[in-house]
Amino acid sequence: MTEQPRPLIEITDLVKQYDVLPVLRKLNLTVHRGEFVALLGPNGSGKSTLLRLLCALTRPTSGEIRIGGWSLPKEINAVRAQIGLVSHKPLFYENLTATENLTFFGRLYNIPATELPDRIRQMLDEVGLIKRAHDLARTFSRGMQQRLSIARALLHQPDVLLFDEPYTGLDQLAGGILDDLLRKAHQSGRTIIMTTHQLERAEALVSRAVIIKKGVIGYDEPINPANPPNLVKIYTEVTGMVNAL
Amino acid sequence: MTTPLWRTVFSIIRKDLRAELRSRELVSTMVLFALLSVLVFSFALELDRTARQEVVNGILWVTLVFASILGLNRSLATERELGGMDAMMISPIPRMAIYLGKMVGNFLFVLVVGLVLLPIMTILYNMVLIQIPLIATLILGVFGLASIGTLLAAMTAQTRSRETLLPIAMLPVIIPLLLVVIAAASTVLKGDDAWNWIAVLGLVDAIYAALGLLLFEYVIED
């Protein structure tokens, strides 16, 4: 009998409360290496809070988070080194060029100076921005900004990629390019957790769908690409948001 | 796994200087505000030589304080608006490095304003303000403003009413600094030895910087 590998992300009885308002209520979730998880749920359900907790931007009220065997918040920097975050905000500097931005973040992740220029060129090439490497980030379209964000998140070769509403503000073309980049990142073996309201996109991309309702997991099933479930129907049933869809 | 402190601090300073050299957003706003303020003061106050000697330090430091509040607000708000602060926060760097990097950047920007003001006020108020003890007072005074200001601006940048909140939070806290700065500068202008006051100013700076280093982590995390 083969032993089941230990999950890459283990969340146990996680509670997050802002003042007296509970956002996550004893949430439990495990994610294995290589999974691509869509985190779905209505606004205010706790999806973004969960991502902020996973990248240690905020501390849990109680409960435990372990990523790659490291515990939060005790081994916070070991966890941070394994995580890349792409949010709806650019998370870079408009008055720096694409290369300058990546150089800055590469230094923060302690990437050796001898390795950094090649790594930056490779990342910009992967996201299709190599020709704009020396242009100021403020001259980029929203889609290009999101691609630069992905290059920044991938630069230090993290095991886990977190995407918080990455499609916000993207047109169809830019959304399609982002789909391809997400597929590539998943195929390269990375573990991805993405919050989104775009259920059809999630259905086509991810290997597992998790729906959060009022701070707890309301649905958690793998997605079989050969026979995908009707996520829109499931979402409506779990969240009770018939009119919203 | 943590990136070394000084490598991070220098990277943040270099990033801030490069972005500022390109946009000139912070320093030009602060310099313009400061120049207009000292001009308004010079027209509004009809002063004889003795009165000028008494108020010139007040004018310089009130102007610098308000100019620094403008700059500090902008410096930290930009980090929040575009998520630069979050991007730094999720990287494996000591929180102290973010504070030191931002503080040194803010110090340099406000110092530029002070160094522009000194010769201009020398002309406008017909007093010799370019003297080594006065420049030392300026450097230490601005350092104090930047150390406590960066901490408070990081705190207020997370709120919606940051523009009004920073002066309300900062002005009472910098009163000890202002008292010592004015005492040191007035002593210099009277032609007396001000190095004791300058030493006290260094002590006030050390307290503010220690507060910043100790509290920054708690201020920027939820």
Describe the structure.
The complex is a heterodimer of chains A (245) and B (222). Chain A is of the alpha/beta class. Chain A is 33% helix and 25% strand. Chain A has 8 helices and 10 strands. In chain A, α6 links the parallel β7 (160-164) and β8 (191-195). The longest helix of chain A has 16 residues, at 172-187. The termini of chain A are far apart. Chain B is an all-alpha fold. Chain B has one domain (5-220). In chain B, α3 (49-81) packs antiparallel against α8, α6 runs antiparallel to α8 and α6 (132-156) runs parallel beside α9 (195-220). The relative contact order of chain B is 0.14. The mean pLDDT of chain B is 92. Classes of the chains: A alpha/beta (245), B mainly alpha (222). Chain A binds chain B through residues 52, 55-59, 77-78, 80-81, 83, 85, 87, 89-96, 100, 104-105, 107-110, 136, 152, and chain B through 1-4, 7-8, 11, 14-15, 18-20, 22-23, 25, 82-84, 86-93, 221-222.
Structural shape of chain A: globular
Number of domains of chain B: 1
> Tell me, what is the CATH class of the largest domain in chain A?
Alpha Beta
Question: How many beta-strand elements of chain A?
Answer: 10
Supply Rg of chain B. Answer: 18 Å
The major pleated sheet of chain A works out as: 6 strands, mixed
Average pLDDT value of chain A? 90
Strand residues, percent of chain B: under 5%
DSSP E strands of chain B, number: 0
